[in-house]
Amino acid sequence: MTESPPESPPVLLIVDDTAANLGVIASHLEDSGFEIVIAQSGEDGIKRAQRTLPDLILLDVMMPGIDGFETCKRLKADAQTADIPVIFMTALAETTDKVSGFEAGGVDYITKPIQVAEVLVRINTHLGLRAARRQLMERNAALQHEIETRRQAEAALEQTNQRLARTIETLERTQAQLVLAAKVAGLGAIVTGIAHELNTPIGVAMLTASSLDADVQKMQQMHPRLAEDKVQKESLDRLYKNVGEELSLLDSSLHRAGDLIRKFRMVAVDQLNSRTQVFGLNELVYQTVSEFRIQNTASHRIDIRIDPAITINGYPGALEQVLANLLSNAFQHAFEEPTGGNVIIEGKSHNGWVTLTVGDDGKGIAPERVTRIFDPFYTTQLGKGGSGFGLYAVFNQVSHLMGGHINVESTPGKGTRFILELPCGGTRTTD
Hints:
CATH superfamily of the largest domain: Histidine kinase-like ATPase, C-terminal domain
Number of helices: 11
Shape: rod-shaped
CATH topology of the largest domain: Heat Shock Protein 90
Helix content: 55-70%
Strand order of the largest sheet: 2-1-3-4-5
Distance between the termini: 84 Å
CATH class of the largest domain: Alpha Beta
Order of helices and strands: EHEHEHEHEHHHEHEEHEEHHEE
Number of strands: 12
Structural class: alpha/beta
Largest sheet: 5 strands, parallel
């Protein structure tokens, strides 16, 4: 095991213009283990202090040239020597002289003639204080460094947290886009479903048309016989009745096919050709409700509660279709015929968004059906004219075209609420 090198002895600078005093003091202090540097004037003492940077200075007050007080002031004014403790050696015993010494920057004083034991005690005391002060400064510096390091680490952590938050937000947004993309990617399956749905009304229409054609041919064959009065009136009336029923069935089937095609066009809307415009929400809702009432004569009550000041820079045509679909869904599924029901349409704006709610007090939706309500071709009215396509079209319009969100809340026996969140400023700009 190697021994650490011995510590260097403390260096003391003694400044005194009397050689005899210097010799006596220096001899005693060297015997006590100190390294001694001497100077015989204030100017010389300053130079030696700057060159050797002693651990402590013993400074005589009464000297020719600059005295001890001025010498001390100059030492304290220099950054190199400012922290070196100075002990005055003086024959002056007046309080004012002691005060002048402390004001000049001295830390202590000893009176002449010098008592070696006293000098050693005072020197060791102030060397210990200086060492403690240096240690404290080093610890403070280390603490400041640690504080700064922690501050930088906290700042870096905050930046990392912000980046993580942005990453999570991006991931959530990407996940939502992937969900929507998956729905759009399902258009192939949707087209297949639509083809299946269209087969029934179109097939009925074709059979009806064939039957109608046969009846028309019969009428043409009967026409020459009418003049001969060989056809009974009831047979002709029955034939006319059949033709009327067949025409009605043909018209109904073709209308159903047309409605399915219209809903499909809502899902596959060409967004590149869609244009935004500023419109009043209250006015649009009133207009849509008025048109809907004309087409639907059932005894339903619609209450509109929308702030007239709300405007949207968006797609009014698409929103009309969405609202009409939601109203149609409520009137077809929420209430038992012929009993009417209540529908409330509410609209509020907040922080650049509009919340539009369409709620009814009907029979509600079972919880297991709520989770599937926006799926394509999901319907509770299978075989009763429901295609299960309207709410999927609504979801697609709100999410894809309008850049909004739609949710549903329902309690069986109490009613259903569709909640739309739409941006006031639209989702994109167009040429």
